[in-house]
Every structure is written in structure tokens, then in C-alpha cells.
Task: inverse folding
């Protein structure tokens, strides 16, 4: 963890750290402190007076049906995005791990969506499912499903899940593939000699050895679903119809910038920060463990 | 190969081809739509084969932009995106290289505190503290400027960690030898450490370029002046037109242009990119 050979001095290292620390203090710590501070204040209707209200903003938040609904939407959305993203990527990675011909070609094509901005990914799928001209909307209508994500909240949620999963497959795929390639061939071969078929080998040998990678990806994907998918929702459904695609991070934005409810938005920021801190802590604990083994 | 089962080999290729099809299909449809005139798209289902308006659509877009979206030329948006992505990537690398150097190669009070303050930034995504951050930038008079677009995003815990991990693997003998030859810390940094970090710098550059290019909410908030519009946020203004159908052929052309540069960067620098990605997150 530490270097044995170091340089002496105090002014120099501080000067070297200064740019990073100044930016962090001004644009990270100060705003986070402001969010904490504002979360215990309430402004009157004209923004003229602010009063200290203690935890009232939080109490109001957790008794607000719209907020609780948004929590529910976030949980459903994150579970769907995480599960589908991991399952599809794992399937593709196990297939790609054993392919001899064209392996690098597949890999190149499959990592492409990583480069696409979530907002752009959202718009691409938005177009495919456009109720009047979208290809998939037409196909679904031919199959007897009346697709209109502008009116049907469940369908809107399905749409943003698809776009979010599509965007995240590449990332999961790369990590699963790296994990698979780190598994010693001799283990799998020994099992094959003992007569275990491909499915049995996968579930009893490969999958358990892959679990550290899977766990790491689980945390990353939950974080992705909670925060990075903001772009997709903002560029396409804008949280609607109704509140059906308003995930927590979108609500912070819409209550703060559109609704101008500072106290509530700040309280929501604090709740979200708590969630990130828990997620980061879990991730860090796990990283430390993996480094030490 | 453990055993030879032709059926499994075929199955693998079928699954992978299906995966590739899912990945490519939306992009293909977008490209196709961008080569048709508006009426073709609105008259029925979006076509699957390119039309004849490729040159017209793109040249109109690049020079004149789209009237509904304020008529900002997409060429300008591309330029802004490039500036933003390059400034963020180089800025992050410069800032992280020196701060990781200070943390690894010096012993001084508050070293661990500095380390933890940097680590904290990992926990605070822009979306979470969006309103107060916006207020800070507004108070500093940085709205509608490249500085406002880039500086708040320049602190990077990820890059700092990657460089820290790398410095820790650099043999102690190098620093010892440099010190014995009378080189000061900065001389050691520029003549030995930076050249050794070349691969890592390139890898992190790819990732940070993508990060910068794909920024969305931040430019949307801090720029109201249309001459600072970046392409990813420009799409938002084109899709969300209030009273009519969006001009899908132009929207899809913009989407194609928005995804082309980052995809090209990833494909060309694939090896570095994969290395950077897998190692940063370890």
C-alpha cells in the first residue's frame, strides 16, 4: 500500500493536490453541504423567507404518495435493468468465451453500445417504438398488442428498461468475458472427463467461480440504473405518462428545476446521497477483499 | 475446446449473431431513417433500406441545423462536443496524474484526508446534487462558457485511483536511483513517471473522452445560449417539439452523428479501451 522511497517536502505535494482539491471543494463538497443545509429549511411561497423546519421535509417526503410511488418505480426499474442486463450479457459472454472463429469480431460489435450516450440510446428505441411510425409498434399491433407508450405507463416503463439494458450489455459483457477467461481451463476439462455435460459444468464450476465478477457487476448495475439512466428518461418519456417512469433521480431534478420546491428537492438529494454512500461502501468493502485474497 | 459438439458450436454462433443483431438494429434503423425525406417516414412504417437523401439531409443539418431546434448548425454542436470532451479528458488526466503523484510519493500530514476527500467525489454523482451545483456555477458567472461546461466535471476519483494503483506498481529502485542522481521530485515525475504511464494515460483518455462526449444533463443546464449546445443535448431539443411530430429524418441524422465519434474512438482504440475499463473498475 505504501511506497518505501518517498520525497520530502510539504509545499510541493500540497501544490500538486491543490487543483483537484479546489475543484472537489467548490463543485462537490460545497453543493453537497448546501443540499444537506437546505434539506432542513423551508421557503415560503414567494421565496422571501426561509425557516428552519428540522426533519419536516423528510417527514413530508416519506408521507408523500408521489414520492413513495417514485420509490416503487425505481425499485421495479432497477431490478428489471440489472437482472436483464446481467442475464443477457452472461449468456453472450459464455457463448463468446468458447467461440473460436470470429471471436474478436463479435466482441468488437458487442461493445459498440457502450460508446453511445444513454440519451441517444433512448431516442433510438423511442423511434423504433413510436406508436405511429415505429417498426416495433407496428409489429406489436399486428400481433394484437396495442402499443402506445405515450398513454400506457407500463409500456413506457418497458421502453426505458429496454433502452437502459441495451446500453449496459456491452459493459457487463466485457467484465463477464474477462472473468470467464480467467477461469483455468484445466478445471473445466477435469469435469468434462468426469462426464459432466456443458450445463452441469457451467452451474457447478464456472458460475461459482464467476460470482465475484457477478457481484461487482450487480453493484455497478444498480448504481447505473439509479443514476445514469436519468438521460434516457429525460430525453424520452420525461417521467411520464403520469408518474410511471419518474425514478428518484428524475424526481430530484423535476421537483428542483421544474417545481422549484427547494426543500423537498434537497431532502431527496440527501436520501439519494445516502443510497450512493451505501452502494459505494458495499463496493469498496468488496474491492478490498478481492485485493487481499 | 473441451469436447467437440457441432450442435453447441452452431448454437453459440446463433446466440452471438442474435446478440449482435439486437445491438446493431437500432443504429441501422436510425441511419436508414436519416437517408429518407420526411414524408416517407410519416406515411407509414419506418423503412429498412437506405433512401436517396443522405447527402441532402446531412448537409442541411450540418450547415443550417433544424428550424424547430433554434436552427443551431449541427456542425457547431459537433465542434462544441469535441471541445468539451477534449477539455474534460485532458483536464482530468492532468489533475489526476499530479494528485496521484502527491499521494503516492510524498509523506505529509493530511495525506490520508486528501485521499478521502477525493474518494468522496465518487459518491456524489452530478444528478444527485444538481441544484446546488448549478447555483455555485451560476454564482461564479460560469454559465454559458466552456469553463462552466468542463471545470466542474474535471475532478475525477476514478482516474486518480487508476494512476495511484499504477504508481504503486512502479519499482522503488527507479525513485531511489533518480534521487541518488540528484533528481528532484518534479524531474522524476516528468522524466520517468509520465513516460512510464503512457499506456494508462491513453486508456483513461478513451474512457474520459466518452464520458465528456456523452454528458447530457450538465450542458443542458449550464448553457442557455445556443452557440454552446452540444450534440447529445441538441437531440433533446429536436425530439421535444411541442405541437407537431419531430422531424424524424433530421433527428435520426443527428443521432447518427452524435454516436459516430465515440463509437469510432472505441472501435479504433478497442484494446486500450478494454484495458482501461477493466482495470479502472478493479
Result:
Amino acid at each position: 500500500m505504501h511506497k518505501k522511497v518517498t520525497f520530502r517536502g510539504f509545499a510541493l505535494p500540497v501544490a500538486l493536490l491543490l487543483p483537484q482539491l479546489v475543484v472537489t471543494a467548490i463543485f462537490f463538497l460545497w453543493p453537497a453541504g448546501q443540499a444537506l443545509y437546505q434539506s432542513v429549511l423551508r421557503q415560503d411561497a414567494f421565496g422571501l423567507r426561509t425557516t428552519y423546519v428540522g426533519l419536516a421535509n423528510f417527514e413530508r417526503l416519506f408521507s408523500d404518495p408521489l414520492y413513495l410511488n417514485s420509490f416503487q418505480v425505481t425499485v421495479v426499474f432497477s431490478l428489471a435493468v440489472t437482472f436483464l442486463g446481467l442475464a443477457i450479457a452472461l449468456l453472450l459472454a459464455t457463448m463468446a468465451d468458447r467461440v473460436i472463429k470470429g471471436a474478436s469480431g463479435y466482441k468488437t460489435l458487442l461493445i459498440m453500445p457502450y460508446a453511445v450516450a444513454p440519451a441517444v440510446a433512448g431516442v433510438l428505441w423511442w423511434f423504433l417504438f413510436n406508436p405511429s411510425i415505429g417498426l416495433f409498434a407496428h409489429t406489436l399491433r399486428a400481433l394484437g398488442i396495442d402499443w402506445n407508450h405515450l398513454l400506457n405507463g407500463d409500456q413506457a416503463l418497458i421502453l426505458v428498461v429496454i433502452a437502459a439494458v441495451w446500453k449496459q450489455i456491452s459493459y457487463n459483457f466485457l467484465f463477464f468475458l474477462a472473468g470467464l477467461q480467467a477461469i483455468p481451463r484445466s478445471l473445466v476439462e477435469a469435469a468434462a472427463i468426469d462426464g459432466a455435460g456443458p450445463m452441469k459444468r457451467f452451474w457447478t464450476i464456472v458460475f461459482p467461480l464467476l460470482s465475484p465478477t457477478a457481484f461487482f457487476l450487480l453493484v455497478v448495475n444498480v448504481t447505473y440504473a439509479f443514476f445514469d439512466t436519468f438521460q434516457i428518461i429525460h430525453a424520452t418519456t420525461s417521467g411520464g405518462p403520469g408518474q410511471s417512469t419518474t425514478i428518484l433521480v428524475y424526481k430530484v431534478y423535476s421537483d428542483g428545476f421544474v417545481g422549484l420546491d427547494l426543500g423537498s428537492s434537497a431532502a431527496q438529494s440527501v436520501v439519494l446521497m445516502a443510497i450512493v454512500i451505501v452502494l459505494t461502501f458495499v463496493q469498496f468493502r468488496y474491492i478490498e477483499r478481492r485485493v487481499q485474497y | 475446446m473441451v469436447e467437440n459438439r457441432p450442435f453447441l458450436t452452431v448454437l453459440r454462433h446463433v446466440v452471438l449473431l442474435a446478440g449482435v443483431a439486437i445491438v446493431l438494429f437500432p443504429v441501422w434503423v436510425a441511419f436508414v431513417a436519416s437517408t429518407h425525406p420526411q414524408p416517407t417516414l410519416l406515411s407509414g412504417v419506418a423503412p429498412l433500406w437506405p433512401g436517396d437523401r443522405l447527402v441532402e439531409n446531412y448537409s442541411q443539418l450540418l450547415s443550417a441545423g433544424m428550424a424547430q431546434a433554434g436552427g443551431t448548425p449541427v456542425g457547431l454542436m459537433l465542434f462544441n462536443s469535441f471541445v468539451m470532451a477534449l477539455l474534460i479528458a485532458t483536464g482530468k488526466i492532468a489533475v489526476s496524474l499530479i494528485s496521484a503523484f502527491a499521494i503516492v510519493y510524498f509523506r505529509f500530514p493530511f495525506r490520508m484526508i486528501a485521499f478521502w476527500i477525493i474518494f468522496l467525489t465518487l459518491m456524489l454523482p452530478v444528478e444527485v446534487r444538481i441544484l446546488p451545483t448549478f447555483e455555485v456555477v451560476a454564482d461564479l458567472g460560469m454559465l454559458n462558457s466552456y469553463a462552466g461546461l468542463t471545470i466542474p466535471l474535471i475532478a475525477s476519483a476514478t482516474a486518480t485511483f487508476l494512476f495511484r494503483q499504477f504508481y504503486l506498481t512502479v519499482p522503488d529502485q527507479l525513485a531511489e536511483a533518480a534521487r541518488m542522481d540528484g533528481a528532484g521530485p518534479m524531474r522524476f515525475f516528468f522524466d520517468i513517471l509520465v513516460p512510464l504511464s503512457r499506456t494508462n494515460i491513453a486508456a483513461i483518455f478513451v474512457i474520459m473522452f466518452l464520458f465528456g462526449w456523452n454528458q447530457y444533463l450538465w450542458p443542458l443546464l449550464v448553457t442557455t445560449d445556443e452557440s454552446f449546445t452540444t450534440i447529445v443535448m441538441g437531440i433533446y431539443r429536436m425530439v421535444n417539439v411541442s405541437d407537431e411530430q419531430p422531424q424524424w429524418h433530421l433527428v435520426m441524422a443527428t443521432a447518427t452523428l452524435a454516436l459516430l465519434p465515440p463509437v469510432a474512438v472505441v472501435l479504433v482504440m478497442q484494446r486500450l479501451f478494454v484495458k482501461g475499463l477493466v482495470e479502472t473498475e478493479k
User: Anything to note?
Assistant: Residues 74-105 of chain B form the longest helix (32 residues). The mean pLDDT of chain B is 83. Chain B has 15 helices and no strands.
